[in-house]
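Minutes, project check-in

Agenda point 3 was the complex the collaborators sent over. CS summarized: two entities, 571 residues total, and the question is how they sit relative to each other. Sequences were read into the notes so everyone works from the same version.
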Amino acid sequence: MSLMEIKNLHKSFGGLSAVLNFNFNLQSNELVGLIGPNGAGKTTVFNLITGVYKPDEGKILFADKDLAGLPPYVICKHGIARTFQNIRLFRDLSVLDNVKIAFHKNVPYGFLNAIIRTPNFFRGEREIEEQAMEYLKIFNLDSKKDEIASSLPYGEQRRLEIARALATNPTMLILDEPAAGMNPQETQDLMQLIQWIRKDFNLSILLIEHDMSLVMGVCERIYVLDYGQVIAEGKPEEIRNNKRVIEAYLGEEVT
Amino acid sequence: MQGSGKIGGRLIAEVAAVAALFMLGQFLISTGMLEQYYQIILTSMCINIILAVSLSLINGFTGQLSLGHAGFMAVGAYASVVMTNRLDLPFIIGILAACLGAALAGFIIGVPTLRLKGDYLAIATLGFGEIIRVVLQNIDYVGGPSGIMGIEKYTTWAWLFASTILTLVVIVNLINSSYGRAIISVREDEVAAELMGINTTRYKVIAFVVGAMFAGLAGALYAHYFYIIKPESFTFMKSFDILVMVVLGGLGSTTGAVIAAIFVTALTAFLQSFPAIRMILYALILIIVMIYRPQGLMGNKEIGRKTLARLWGGKR
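CS then shared the predicted structure for the full assembly.
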């Protein structure tokens, strides 16, 4: 059964159709890539799925519920988490606090408990801290928990963003150009990390990426978007040899 | 068990320190060692601390530029005076009416305007603050433009002190909780916060309502100390004064807001006899601080237990 099924998704900005008749499905525990030339509408698709934009038309079925048009925080509660093309951490907060915020949607104590500091509050805060530390340990950031997020090196900021997304306990993770700005070695490490978290957290992952070695290396299935429309879909090797894709985009890159 | 014992011990020490501070103030006032003039300054300081700390919740921690704080203070002042002066009810009812009235005003203003961002929100809150003032000016029941005179002086040191401590405890505890992190995440990156499952509108409204509520409390204390209230006391300039304290102290620092409130009140009192120089100096200090410390006196740092512990440890 598909975990996510998108039907006839449509979004236009003024006269420009950014996403046109977009159909998509994602199985449980599947790793799918979304590629396409710059301006093809990839990030718009992500923004539609996560509720940053409201679709003009179409359905986004996730675990049999239609999420189209719901606000982002509700979509997050349904189990979809994402990272951003330009890292969007809570820059002035500590590494630990960045992850702690992800637990707020299940905050284990009430508002008044926080203000009058009941034992419930202290217990809840301890739980949150322990859980947040576990995520930091997984991403090897636990020794930097008190550092300010914006002071971390670039690669660690990317890792922290993924840690923060995972801390919301999603069933589907959306990564927007996770390897942007990384060197080949870092990209290699990232590929292993992505595959490992998929297995360990039992996640479905959808990613946008321009680095073809990463996309071809980890994705089981790839959608190719051009001018807001899907022009091809299939296994990496099929995409690699697809005429329309080569014309539209890959060209010299995959030889 | 050891951990909770430690927390309990620290709490007792803190309560003792606060009680000692209260007793000291009470002693100085009741023996007359603190002259009338300084008592007025002390009262203004407490009221300004409440105003600055409550606005810092909205401006500093939630990152929503609000220029209508004097409006909420006015709602509190008038609501409490209607209770005590017009309806002859006890002061505590006046205080509650002030808090509830201002919180309600915060909610009514907050829900539609908090969809706005940055400059637009600032203009909208500025407008609402002025609307509150103009409405009060036109209600004869509360004296219209000349306001209400002869308000009973109910605001004692005990009320002032308890209100200031209450404001600090509530806002500091709120900030240092999961709810506080949600509020701060709105300031840091609204889109990211929303995608982390934070209902950002809700937390903006909460911050706005809580901030307005304490501004109302400050208004009630103000009205029942200074004998007279009139709409003219709650103009945009008053909102601006409070904003200066918050910015001077550092956006996102409660201790900064407290220090700045004390400093600005003292400065204003000190320069009372030179009103012309006062405004110039005021502006000059702001400019100098913004040039050399654009993040405010405290930035977003706090002076808390940790700092005190470090200072203590450093001395030994």
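Noted in discussion: Chain B touches chain A at residues 4, 7, 169-170, 173-174, 177-182, 184-185, 188-189, 191-200, 252, 300 (CB under 8 Å).
Follow-up: revisit at the next meeting once the mutant set is ready.
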